[in-house]
Design brief:
alpha/beta; TIM Barrel; 9-stranded mixed beta sheet; 28% strand
Length: 202
């Protein structure tokens, strides 16, 4: 298959349990949902490192190229497959190629599509009315609030961590205050903040 990639870049993971970890991000182009609150540009293939890739090994080569300024023995091997919706394109071949290069792989998915086996860390961010076929993983990150979505309806799923992330988390915002209050009242959930936005990094 031909992979359509919006961008490939090196930065710090800004969300979830792995916040602060240096990572190479592979942002796939396209999504199967049209969420009105989405804050990510995933259309096209015109970002840094973006393009059409005929082979999974070409993607991994581009990922390694992001780390040329780092000594090889120190180079992180933490890959974040994101989007858009990475489950539309991420496949067994890509997972195999990344593991061959000793990459630890995480995927950030809306959970509406199956994902290939072998992914090391699974983050699911369910969306209202979309359904969820992935019912177990490492972290469930719920954007909050979403009309018609009760966070407690996800608590029976087999995720290690439950995270509430306010849709608008600017200081003093109503959504941020509501998210804080929800976590305080429901301590199975923890508050998630988009650190990269606060730090103004990609």
């Amino acid at each position: 298959m031909t992979y359509r990639i919006k961008e490939i870049f090196y930065s710090l993971q800004g969300e979830g349990i792995n916040t602060g970890r240096p990572a190479v991000f592979v942002r796939f182009s396209g999504c199967n949902l049209a969420c009105p609150f989405c804050d990510t540009d995933f259309s096209g293939i015109d970002g840094p490192g973006g393009g059409e890739y005929a082979r999974a090994s070409d993607i991994v080569s581009e990922m390694r190229a992001c780390l040329t300024s780092i000594e090889p023995e120190d180079a992180p091997r933490f890959a974040v497959l994101t989007g858009g919706e990475p489950a539309l394109q991420a496949d067994v071949e890509l997972i195999r190629e990344l593991h061959r290069g000793n990459w630890e792989i995480t995927i950030e998915t809306n959970g509406t599509l199956p994902i290939p086996p072998g992914i090391d860390w699974i983050t699911v961010s369910p969306k209202a009315g979309a359904g969820c076929v992935i019912t177990k993983g490492n972290e469930l990150k719920l954007l909050y609030p979403q009309r018609g979505v009760d966070p407690s309806s996800f608590e029976h799923l087999a995720f290690d961590h439950l995270i509430i992330q306010p849709i608008d988390e600017t200081a003093g915002s109503e959504n941020l205050r509501d998210a804080i209050d929800y976590c305080l009242a429901h301590p199975r959930w923890r508050l998630g903040i988009q650190l990269h936005k606060i730090l103004k990094i990609k």
